[in-house]
Amino acid sequence: MSHNIRSSRSRSRSPLRSIPLFPLILAIPKSIINADFIKLQEKLASKCEVDRLHLASETNLPNFDEGFLYIYGPSLKGKIEILKSILSEIQRIIDRPTLELKILIPDNLIEALTGKGGKLLNKIQTNSHATITIVEEIKNLRERLIKIEGRSADVELAIKEVYRLIVERKSNSEPKSVLDKTSAKFVIPGECVGYLIGKNGLFTKRLKADYDVEIKIVKNEGLPCKDNEHIAMLLGKYRYVKTAIEIVVDKILEAIETTCSPISDLLVRMLIPTQMVKELIGPQGSIIKEISKKSGGAKIKVMCDTETEKMQDFTIVTIDGSRDLKQEAAIRIYEVISRGHKPSSPSSRRSRGYSPSPPTDNVSIFVTVPDALVSRLIGRNGDNVKGMMSRSRSQMSFQKQPSTELKTPENDKARLCTFTGSSSSIARGIKTLLDQIIKLESGRYD
């Protein structure tokens, strides 16, 4: 059950006014949440300088006996006034000199508190005389809880200092403008960045040479990403990026399998503008269901359930399933997100519902291939290249002689391989060709 109470008071002119709205989130014991508490909530909303109080008493978390009270508003003073009243009510009920209260904080704030031997955490405990404990991760809860124990005034001071840290960390985070909203973005573990880029940037060079797409690695942007995560951003023309997504997803999954230990999951995680979440989901989930169906049954989840997630500039979308399903779903999600930044038209949108992109005429893309491998790629009587064309349903033709001006990223002689077909068939063809090149270079050609 949720209770939303809006305050009729004007907003405070606190120095925090310029900081983006971020709620103070208290975990309230369910034993406290009764008719008297609801009345107190209504009284506080009208009395204190806050914009809104939101009580979520049903959290859908197993074995969790608390609800969440979200306190919205730019005024730190108003939030602390409400905190005092809540602490007073809890102490009145338990009738003990000391009490405890949990608050919800962004996951990536844990490292800030506990890093460098817990220096910051110890400082807050020393200043407030309260005891602070990091609660173990709770399944289905992507934020973290910290428990604060002590006398009422000590708990209040500790929460106040932790909340200031939340606000400062959010306001001082790297500007989101470094992320191009129309690009395809993937969240990746920090340890697999080197493998993804390749030795001496080999994969990025091939991506640029073969697809005319640049891949830019951006360090963690704060929520919704974790501190040890990076963002792989694909930049280029829409149709080129769309074609490159398949091989990039494949490379990301390979990088995770190779470098991450232990491997918790092999989900593909895309980063989309939060303002596009409704566009992606569609009425009654119609668009995201259609994307799942068209991709062959990929499991797609938009990670925008909690209040803190809804307030971020970007949202994570996870994709699960076989490798092929993940690749196809990622392409279709990119189609929807890109369409959201272009003028709508009846042919591309039906009553705001998802519809596949209209068929396009055949296009041609050129790929550089090491000259030394061309004869084996073609095969006797063209058997190998015919097999690749059959599997990908695209046309392939090799330049007859190596170009004097064309070199591979390793500075070897190269020829052009021309692919002709639809964007999806070309993507399959390029992947097939690159797989064969890898086999040849490793001496495992079938």
From TrEMBL:
Keyword terms of this UniProt record: Repeat, RNA-binding
GO function terms (MF aspect): RNA binding
Region annotated Disordered, chain positions: 340-362, 384-409
Entries under InterPro entries matching the protein: KH_dom (IPR004087), KH_dom_type_1 (IPR004088), KH_dom_type_1_sf (IPR036612)
Stored Gene3D superfamilies: K Homology domain, type 1
Sequence ranges assigned to domain K Homology in this UniProt record: 97-167, 180-257, 264-338, 361-438
Compositional bias per record (Low complexity), positions renumbered to this chain: 388-397
Protein name: K Homology domain-containing protein
